[in-house]
Write a structure and sequence with these properties.
6 helices; single chain; mainly alpha; Ferritin
Length: 207
């Protein structure tokens, strides 16, 4: 004789199967959404990486030119140091591209381009050594503020993408930018030395 399943039990079993099927579907949908989210995040990460890569490559020679216009020797050294940091950052960013399986591609940053153009206009204004240094400090702080915002975001993205080495490199760059900003924030144009002012006059005569 075939055993009959009580109607209530059969109904419960069918309901359980439907619940499990629905949960599996929701789990699958959740996983697919998570995968899409990570893909979009990586696309954003690579794009922002390209913007920083292009900006660092552009800033290295630009800062070298800016440094020679500084009246204060300490400001000149700081700007030159930042230029050398830019060169090192380009190499570090290339390594991150490679670790992510991407080709290093630069993406023009209109913000940095605009800051450099505005900086040239400030330096073209009439003024003595301390005034020129004030213009240089303003331009440098604008650049570094942009870099701090960019590298803090990139470090966060790298962490979310489970790229601890890339996150560490980016955090190291960020720390150096933050330290440079503190140095510039402590700079004051009226503290320009007589040595710096004399050097500026000499350069003007020799031009």
């Amino acid at each position: 004789m075939v055993a009959r399943v009580p109607p209530s039990r059969a109904t419960n079993d069918a309901s359980s199967r439907r619940t499990l099927s629905a949960e599996d579907g929701e789990s699958g949908a959740g996983s697919a959404e998570q995968i899409d989210h990570m893909k979009h995040l990586k696309t954003l990460f690579v794009a922002e990486l390209g913007t920083c890569f292009s900006s660092e490559a552009r800033l290295a020679p630009a800062l070298a030119k800016m440094a020679v216009t500084a009246a204060s020797p300490s400001l000149e050294r700081l700007i030159r140091l930042q230029g050398h940091e830019c060169e090192r950052n380009v190499k570090d960013l290339e390594g991150i591209f490679e670790a992510c399986g991407e080709k290093a591609r630069g993406k023009r940053c209109e913000a940095i381009a605009g800051i450099l153009v505005d900086g040239d206009k400030l330096l073209a204004l009439p003024g003595d050594g301390p005034a020129l240094d004030a213009a240089l400090i303003a331009t440098m702080r604008k650049i570094i503020h942009w870099e701090i915002a960019s590298y803090s975001s990139l470090a966060e993205y790298a962490g979310l993408l489970d790229q601890p080495e890339a996150a560490g490199v980016l955090k190291g760059i960020l720390d150096k930018k933050t330290a440079a900003e503190k140095s510039l924030a402590g700079g004051s144009p009226q503290h320009g030395s007589q040595e710096g002012t004399g050097k500026l006059r000499a350069r003007k005569v020799n031009r």
